Amino acid sequence: MKKYLVWSLFLLNSVSLLAQQRSKFSTARDLEKVLAYRPNRPQPLILAHRGGPEATETENSLETFRHTYQQVPDAIIEMDVRMTRDSVLVLLHDDEIDRATTGKGSLKAMSWAELQTVFLRNLRGQPTRQRIPLFDEVLQWGAGKVVMAIDAKPDVDLQKVMKAITDRKAQHSVFIICYSTADALRLRKQYPDVWVALGFNQADHGETLRKAGLSLHHLIALASRQESGFYERLHRDGIPCTAGTYGTGNLDEKPIAEVADEYRKIVKTGADILTTDRPVEVSALFKK
Q: What are the residues whose beta carbons fall under 8 Å from the beta carbon of 18, sequence distance 6 or more?
């Protein structure tokens, strides 16, 4: 009887552990369920710009990503990827490291060893004990668990970025922000099913992309706030669309209570994804 009980407990623990270890995003279908356009989506997707740091937190840091994930588990975590002089992929928004770290100079002119001597500053400019993170360690944390929006800066090799992603088996956890149609085409040539995001200034830009040879499958439109006709045109092609609410003078800079209805209006007008600096507060506006 005692052996039976021990064996039963072992099986229960094993099943529980396997359930915990199963990736939430392990197949292309898993990612499609989140990102694909849905006409009756109950609430918008929330994209945490630079990870969504609060005033005392650091942008583009694993610590902030973890904190945002704990509070909004279904948030998309956006991050900025840059490459050092010795070709190491790291996270930082600016090439000049002065604003976000305790160091000075150009990131692309520095080695990874040199970058390890500086610390990140929080949004108030105060130094922390946090270091610039490696892209690889962030992928290791997020693969299969969270959707990550990868903003690889224009001088970063997208093929190197994708190799890092596939090496960590994170290809079903990401979409790649591309700065040009040419970049998207080159990426799709090797990775036909990868989700890409491109800037949309015109509602019919999808037709231009199609003529250039880019499939609209697995495509996200990046846009500022738009009128309903803009979203309707994209939705006819099955393209989900973001609306940015961050930046000087935008909604994220105003008290949430004063502009709560404005966020809701953007979604009601047709935006599928809200890109925001305050993901926790904005997400709460749409919780029932």
A: none
State how far the Cα of 90 lies from the Cα of 259, in Å rounded to an integer.
35
- pLDDT at residue 143 tops 50: yes
And the tokens for 266?
């953007």
Q: Is the pTM of this model over 0.70?
A: yes
Nearest CA among 121, 67, 69, 117 for reference residue 92: 121
Report yes or no: 181 and 198 within 8 Å, Cβ to Cβ: yes
* Tokens coding 242: 């973001």
Token look-up 């668990």 returns 145
Q: Using one digit for the tens of pLDDT, what is the confidence trace for 98-120?
A: 999 999 999 999 999 999 999 99
Kindly report the number of other CB atoms within 10 A of residue 232's CB atom: 12
The pLDDT value recorded for residue 234 is 97
For residues 238 and 79, what is the distance between their CA atoms, to the nearest angstrom?
Answer: 25
Distance between CA atoms of 97 and 42, rounded to whole angstroms? 40
Mean pLDDT of 25-36: 96
As a whole number of angstroms, the distance between CA 102 and CA 131 comes to: 10
Do 51 and 61 form a contact (C-beta atoms < 8 A)?
A: yes
Q: Answer whether 123's CB lies under 8 Å from 59's CB.
A: yes
170 Cβ contact list (under 8 Å, min separation 6): 139, 142, 143, 144, 148
Q: Is the dihedral of CA 63, 69, 72, 76 positive or negative?
A: positive
β-pair type (76-83, 89-91): antiparallel
Q: Could you tell me where the DSSP H helices lie in 82-191?
A: 112-115, 135-142, 158-167, 181-190
Q: Residue count of the chain, please give it.
A: 288
76 in Cβ contact with 147 (< 8 Å): yes
At what angle are helices 135-142 and 62-71 packed, to 10 degrees?
Answer: 20
Cα(61)–Cα(131) distance, integer angstroms: 8
